[in-house]
Amino acid sequence: MKYDVVVVGSGPAGTVTARFAAESGAKVLIVERRAEVGVPVLCGEGISQKIDDWGMLEGKRWIANKMEGARIYSPDGTMVRLSADMAGNETGYVVYRDIFDKELARMAVKAGTEIMMKTEVTGLLKENEIITGVKANQFNEEIDIEADIVVGADGVESKIGQWAGIDTLLKPHDLETCAQYTLTNIECDKEYCDFYLGEEIAPGGYAWVFPKGKDVANVGIGILASLSESGMALKLLDKFIGSHPELKKGEPVRLLAGAVPVAQPVETVKDHLLLVGDAARHADPITGGGLTTSLEGGKIAGETIGKAVNEQKFDNEILGSYETGWKEAFGKKLRRNYLVKEILLGFEDKTLNLLADSLKDYKFEEFSTFSIVKALVLKHPTLLMKLKPLMKISVEK
Amino acid sequence: MGKPKAKVDDKICLACGGCISLCPHDALSMLGGRAFVAEDKCLSCAICIRTCPVGAISGEVYK
Ligand SMILES: Cc1cc2nc3c(=O)[nH]c(=O)nc-3n(C[C@H](O)[C@H](O)[C@H](O)COP(=O)(O)OP(=O)(O)OC[C@H]3O[C@@H](n4cnc5c(N)ncnc54)[C@H](O)[C@@H]3O)c2cc1C
């Protein structure tokens, strides 16, 4: 079996890469360990409405709910409301990830991509140290799949990078360990995605309620792995739900555990190899949202691969325009948000409460660093010192 | 030496892959839809035990 490109993983990063590579003429194969694309869903399913402009998904079947915005609750319950375009990556739509992923797969297949299910990649094929494809196990049979380019789209537990000599190992400080129920027959405000902060609620992370309708929502929690103890995420999630009567009255129809990198991105290109999506550690270090960067990065990867295949050159130099491309598109933001994450982790509950109190009546239509600072200084001047490092980052951009 | 190795309880693991991304000794991988510890590689550091969101990994290795 010989392909131009073998993509390991059928998540959004893999299928979007495959689609754009195939559209520019490459012969592409996706290899997926699972028996169904998009299942099980390991996601809160929130995504920004900016994907509307990207034309990567057709129809509306993948949309569960359209949001007005986000509400952030500080540890003492003070609420700050953000409109959808201010709220960033995770609000806009709540989607059905199983349908979302299958729709992206359909677009890849329409462009000519082949998909092999229930096939696990177990290593890289190499000839004289040059990557020539992947080794895989399919229904207990060892198979070799030759390809000029290997794409690691194998998610948070990625091994492809490591096999190629890229250090993708995460430190506990750079991973959110998560648990989530989809609760049914609850009461929720379907217009808003809610985020709850606090050391007691979710150390180093947050709890979330992402409504899929007026009585169904993804209710989950992520805690920083370095602050975790065995089984803590699920225990804290149960506690969180127990303290919210409107959620407690429901029952779960889905339970998942998950892990989100909140790290700095890694090296993403080697000769004959690219990493995309969570495998490239492209999720947002503040929110853990990784869908938009998977789509954006996947498109850049696919287009780069198209060029490489047309020129029949597969070295670091030609594939490197993928790394340049994603750095231009969202690299700066990931770097900046990593620094912001570090600062926010240092904030005590007290500081978060003051911050929320300063911003709760703030009209976010006139969003600018200057006017926010003004609001803060008027109300809680002591905050200014704590926020200094943050403001420095936002000015540097 | 002789510290107990980490062990995944198949009946609890939900296959999120977090432990695999964190194991400094490359001892964890996904096998048959569950996390699996290669005992010869495990150095009993307990990172996977502490960070498992559902408490599926044990080994009595951490104080
Ligand atoms: C609890 C939770 C909540 C989240 N909430 C949000 C949210 O609300 N919004 C948001 O934007 N992001 C969210 N994320 C992050 C988001 O889910 C990821 O960023 C996104 O799925 C990354 O896509 P991907 O294609 O890189 O990887 P994945 O979607 O993880 O796909 C990787 C694929 O590779 C396959 N694979 C792995 N190894 C192999 C192998 N060796 N051989 C063959 N196949 C293999 C896997 O089976 C899988 O199908 C959340 C994550 C979690 C865990």
Description of the molecule:
The complex is a heterodimer of chains A (397) and B (63). Chain A is an alpha/beta fold and 397 residues long. Chain A has 3 domains: 2-60 and 96-171 and 265-331, 3-Layer(bba) Sandwich (FAD/NAD(P)-binding domain); 68-92 and 172-261, 2-Layer Sandwich (D-Amino Acid Oxidase, Chain A, domain 2); 340-394, no CATH class. Helix content of chain A is 33%, strand content 28%. In chain A, strands 1, 2, 8, 9, 10, 11, 17 and 18 form an 8-stranded mixed beta sheet that branches. A 7-stranded mixed beta sheet of chain A has the order 6-5-13-14-15-12-16. Chain A has a 3-stranded antiparallel beta sheet with strand order 3-7-4. The model of chain B has no long low-confidence stretch (mean pLDDT 91). The two termini of chain B are 16 Å apart. In chain B, the strands form 2 sheets. Chain B has a two-stranded antiparallel sheet with strand order 1-4. Chain B has a two-stranded antiparallel sheet with strand order 2-3. Chain A binds chain B through residues 33, 40, 42, 120, 155-159, 162, 168-172, 175, 177-179, 225, 228-234, 255-259, 261, and chain B through 14-18, 20-24, 26, 29-30, 47, 49-55, 57-58. Bound molecules: flavin-adenine dinucleotide. Flavin-adenine dinucleotide binds next to helix 1, strand 3, strand 9, strand 12 and strand 16 of chain A.
Largest interface: A-B, 33 and 23 residues
Give the helix level of chain A as a range of percent. Answer: 25-40%
Name the structural class of chain A. Answer: alpha/beta
The main sheet of chain B orders its strands as 1-4
Shape of chain B: globular
**Total strands of chain A:** 18
| Beta-strand residue percentage of chain B | 15-25%
Architecture of chain B in CATH? 2-Layer Sandwich
Helical content band of chain B: 10-25%
Give the terminus-to-terminus CA distance of chain B.
Answer: 16 Å
Helix and strand run of chain A: EHEEEEEEHEEEEHEEEEHHEEEHHHHH
Strand elements of chain B, count: 4
CATH fold node name of the largest domain in chain A = FAD/NAD(P)-binding domain
Q: At CATH's second level, what is the architecture of the largest domain in chain A?
A: 3-Layer(bba) Sandwich
Looking at CATH, the homologous superfamily of the largest domain in chain A is FAD/NAD(P)-binding domain
Largest sheet of chain B: 2 strands, antiparallel
- What is the count of helical runs of chain A? 10
